[in-house]
Design brief:
single chain; about 400 residues; alpha+beta; SH3 type barrels; 3 domains
Length: about 400
């Protein structure tokens, strides 16, 4: 998600640090024969009152804490002292069908929302139907482009298990009010976001942004919306939505696992790699992997103050990306590093991504492990690696 100056330092917030305190000693149930039952029903006692969470248990802790996934794809982090009782039935766990999911979400949202469905998406909106259709077409083209890109690289992706959900508000004010529960006052500073918890992308109608409107603007058709959002001043706003939607696809295609310890430079580097808008093509996504002038410029401005251990610090932990004071430079370096690896060392990078895709939820690596995994993929000599990386970036135009 991006704030007003175009950075996106807050995707990491979706990886709520509280999950690290819930499960200390983990027993992973996924893939262990004989341990998985039918649908679990857990009665909870929370501040807002008692409720029942139903779904499949992904992780159980020795202290009784649970990570549960419901049929709408939402992940529930349940602490042991919240659990009143547990039961299970013999019914197999099945994700909701798109129409069921849409009806359920309508009950959670304010009045006035409608449902627009595409092949892979369920879009809840209180915007015009034309804007919902424009969003659906944009997301489907990104989806197709994402899968085609990785297929050509030799990376096999899974079809999403759950319908992909996008919630689109007509006004920024309504969007910010809805998002306060997850982001507090920060919600007003970001254009859109992907939540690892809910598995949804949330945004608002970009044609309502005052800087993109004038007296002559009309936004009554998809073609008019496309023309309006193809203007240079709208590029960063559209890129934000694409960036967040790329996160959603990555975490639903098997490329990455929600709440697994995927280095943020990898997640964000891939999202930036795909975020360049392509509003001219009716099919496909021709601008995937295009050089981002904004990110390249930012990285080059960072170079004079860049220390010799910059790569090591980016790889070993997520601090630079999480810290708003260093996020701009860290995002630029994450993009540049991802671009370099995809173009200079594609086989090694794909092997590295496959290794990361096997990581399980809520198991956290220390900095030494992250660094060792990177060196195992790309070589032990980080000084030589960094020198080649910088030479490559110098030639980028």
């Amino acid at each position: 998600m991006m704030d007003r100056d175009g950075t996106s330092p807050f995707f990491a917030i979706c990886q709520d640090l509280r999950v690290r305190r819930i499960l200390v000693c983990l027993l992973l149930l996924v893939g262990l024969p004989g341990l998985v039952r039918g649908v679990e029903h857990i009665t909870l006692d929370r501040d807002e009152g008692p409720r029942v969470a139903s779904g499949r248990v992904l992780v159980t802790a020795q202290d009784g804490g649970v990570l549960l996934q419901s049929a709408d794809g939402v992940l529930w982090r349940i602490e042991p002292d919240e659990i009143v009782k547990c039961s299970a039935d013999d019914a197999p766990f099945e994700p909701l069908e798109p129409d069921e999911l849409g009806r359920q979400l309508l009950e959670e949202l304010p009045d006035g929302f409608n449902i627009h469905t595409t092949r892979h998406y369920v879009i809840l909106h209180d915007t015009s139907r034309a804007y919902a259709q424009w969003c659906g077409a944009l997301l489907e083209r990104l989806f197709m482009g994402f899968y085609n890109y990785w297929s050509r690289k030799g990376m096999k992706l899974d079809e999403p298990e759950f319908p992909l959900v996008a919630v689109v508000f007509a006004s920024r004010e309504a969007y910010a009010k809805y998002s306060e529960a997850e982001f507090g006052t920060l919600a007003d500073a970001i254009i859109g976001y992907y939540s690892l918890r809910s598995n949804r992308v949330t945004m608002y109608d970009l044609t309502g942004v005052e800087s993109l409107r004038n007296a002559g603007n009309r936004r009554g058709s998809a073609a008019q919306i496309n023309r309006m959002l193809a203007r240079p001043e709208a590029a960063m706003a559209v890129a934000t939505i694409i960036h967040e939607a790329t996160h959603q696809i990555a975490f639903n295609s098997g490329l990455q696992t929600r709440y697994a310890d995927i280095p943020l430079w990898v997640s964000e580097g891939i999202a930036v790699f795909f975020e360049t808008p392509d509003l001219q093509s009716a099919r496909g996504w021709r601008t995937i992997g295009a050089i981002s002038p904004n990110r390249l410029g930012q990285f080059r401005r960072y170079l004079p103050k860049r220390g010799s251990t910059s790569i090591e610090s980016l790889i070993s932990d997520d601090k630079r990306i999480r810290d708003t004071r260093t996020a701009l430079d860290a995002y630029a370096e994450a993009w540049a590093l991802s671009y370099y690896l995809l173009n200079r060392h594609p086989r090694k990078y794909l092997a590295y991504l496959r290794m990361l895709s096997e990581k399980k939820p809520l198991l956290w690596d220390d900095p030494q492990t992250r660094l060792a995994e990177f060196k195992a993929a790309f070589g032990d000599d980080l000084r030589e690696f960094d020198a080649d990386f910088l030479r490559y970036v110098e030639k980028m135009r």
